[in-house]
Amino acid sequence: MDKGRFSLLLLDPGEIYFEDFSGTFIPQDATRKTYDVKRQEGRLKMCSKSLVFEPKDFTKPLIKIHLKDCVVIEEWKGSAKFIESKNALSISCKEYIEMLESNVIAPYQFKESANFLFVLNYANISNCLTMIAQLHRASTLPSVEQSNMIAAIVHSRHSRVSFDPLWLDLYETIMLETQADKVCPLNINPGRCVLTNMRLYFQPYNNVEAYLVLKINLNSIKRIVKRRFLLRHIGLEIYSSNSTASNLPIYLSLRNQNERDSLYEALLDQPELKLDNLQQDVITLQWQNGIISNYEYLQYINSLGDRTVNDLTQYPVFPWIISNYKGEELDLNDPSNFRDLSKPVGAWNDDRLARLLERYNEMAAPKFIYGSHYSTPGFVLYYLARLYPHYVLCMQGGRFDHPDRMFNSVADAYKNCCNNMSDFKELIPEFYDTEQEGRFLLNSKGINFGLRHNNVKVGDVELPLWANSPKHFVEILKSALESDFVSNNLHHWIDLVFGYKQKGDEAIKANNLFYHLCYEGNVDLESISDPNERHALEIQIMEFGQIPKQVFTVPHPKRIQQPQILPAKTSLSNQFNLKTTFNSHKNTVSHLILSQDKITSVGHDSKLKVFSLEHNRQTRSANIGNMPLSSCVQLPNSSVLVIGCWDNQMLLYDMDYGRVTIDILAHEDAVTCLTYGQKCQLLLSGSSDCNVKIWKGLADNPKELLLHKHLDHNSAVSCIRFDPEENCFAVGTEDGEIYIWQVRDFGLFKKYNLGSKINALDYSPDGQKLAIGTENGSFQVLEVNTGMPVFSKTLQSNVCSLKWSGQLLVIGCQNGLLSLWDMFEVRLLLEIEAHTGAICCVAITTDKSLVATGSQDKTIKVWTTQSDSII
């Protein structure tokens, strides 16, 4: 259906379009002879602040009459004999606007006072005039009172509209119905939102949309994100693969936060809804591993920071990357061609920064370094004026910017950002979007933006010499964004814009402090009772730009250097099989040592067991004391085992002689965990007495233990593990704390608190991350240096054990579930019910061909895998 030339962008930002009427516009100079030639058939649009007449003839301009400029609005009582109908509206105004003459996008033409006559074909003039008179009355009020009166009119009018049940299928049931606004750049369109057990509907109150009702199948919705709209937490953005929605997210704003949250919860309660929640959990780790690109990760972080293309006040922000826009060639292997990503734009130029800081130091509170922001609606449209000239006209009252102030040259724009005392803007995603091929740089619509100071007409954006076309330019920028230099430094920029350097003391240290109204929470708008003051603050905040929602409160981890891209794997369900089961323990199996030919285990039955995998039978059983055994380690190149016991002892058991050679009262409470470092030749023991003790001497004499150091903790030690290089070791405790100790001097390197007992932990092969399982069923991957959780998943049951080897991570849970994860692609490979009790220990062979599990159900199981399906 042809919707004509009218759009909400022809209205003032935020203006509401109600309805239209078929009618005829009679120009004031029309006579009996010229009537048939001069009259214009079309539709009269009634809007909250204006009346707009849209002629059917595309060569005629649309006429927009602001209600505030109207002197007279009344029913026509004239007597022109060539006008048969008396059902006409007469308007006298001080000024009116002509738009889109000959359907050409151009600055609006502002005309002097005039009289208008509109003959309505079907609508009753008395009924229409009542509503128009109310809106005219509102236009005479101060802005705040005007907004309140219009809101009351809108609410009254829309509350009388109900959802048409004929849109529903036979078995659909309405779960929730509410009013909502569809948010688009620079405008909103009110309507009714209806949730059923099968679909989400949006029915606009007017006919400006291309559809009568928007239908979104619940099973097509992939993501639902709560948004902040106009400083209030009332937005909801819905990402869907539904063809009706053109694969674009629909952005809704509700009347208040409670209604938004009610719709959000109601959506999540629908069985038909299948969200891609896993993708949200794994994205940072996938980025680190190189599964997703820097461009995709920046899109994701922008979304987390409440940035969306549907809202120009919170448009996605991307960094300047390249610093060389004058050379004929661009070498992406030369670091000098790149911007310093550890500094905000305003800190690039030392001289400019010095002047800004001098002003800052002399300033009264609240202080700021930069008086303008890196992203505002004006800056976004500065870049996109050629692609969306109608947006510019909407935002700037029907006018384009001065030709010399437009985005005419990439080099000039970068130069201004380097030197200008009030220009600190970053870029937008379009600079790196190769699918759009840089079309925003071309004046493909042939818009007349005017002449520059040198009498040159504004045309396409001037590109650097190293780019031969907009497509080529964007491709080079995308390559630069994905380069090793950017991958190694992008985390610094994320810290500035979305992370811990965004505000507070860290922002001051990083010279990253903006005007206080840019930060959410600095002004409590809800507490301001004066509506005029509140309205003024809202306008200020919109114009100054908004800092993204803070996504990270700790330093963001660095991307892994040149990750090894491995082929995608399928499910392991056909490659993971039970090889054998041993059930000779009489109580819980607490620890396993697995090799290609045998399993050594200890249990709460005080037994040490050895099982031959080659002969599928037990080859040794030894009674080690009278208390449960908690752990054991095999000393390298030796037949000696070190065994931890609940009677506070550590025992050295010689497999060759079949006896305990040494028993040491190691702790004041049960020994809970042991680990041995082959490189550093140190044995670590953890205990319920809150201590970790470091022992040495075993390398020289496997029958001698010497206490070297002890480290205190705040609660019982539950698990302990060396990193692969044995430079550090991690300790998990019952109160949820993780300690990272340095082997060099046994100093505390890092300390983190997860809030729940740490049952198991293990280092990644590169030593940069820790996999952690807790008592509350949380499974996390923690960046060691920053403490940032790069992956988090809540499992069905408490995590009791885990082991990380290569890409493979094996997890055993209290409910007997065994899961295998590919930690490169960050996806679940397999989950099976392996035991009837808690899986207390897991082990993997070096080639990952065997996995062993020991359980509270007294059994040990050995599983075979096809190793090439895992590695």
Automatic annotation (TrEMBL):
PROSITE patterns: BEACH, PH_BEACH, WD_REPEATS_2, WD_REPEATS_REGION. Keywords: Repeat, WD repeat. Residues 272-559 form the BEACH domain. SUPFAM superfamilies: BEACH domain, PH domain-like, WD40 repeat-like. WD repeats lie at residues 664-696, 710-744, 832-871. Residues 169-268 form the BEACH-type PH domain. Pfam families: ANAPC4_WD40, Beach, PH_FAN, WD40. It comes from the Eukaryota. This is Uncharacterized protein. The lineage of its organism: Eukaryota, Metazoa, Ecdysozoa, Arthropoda, Hexapoda.
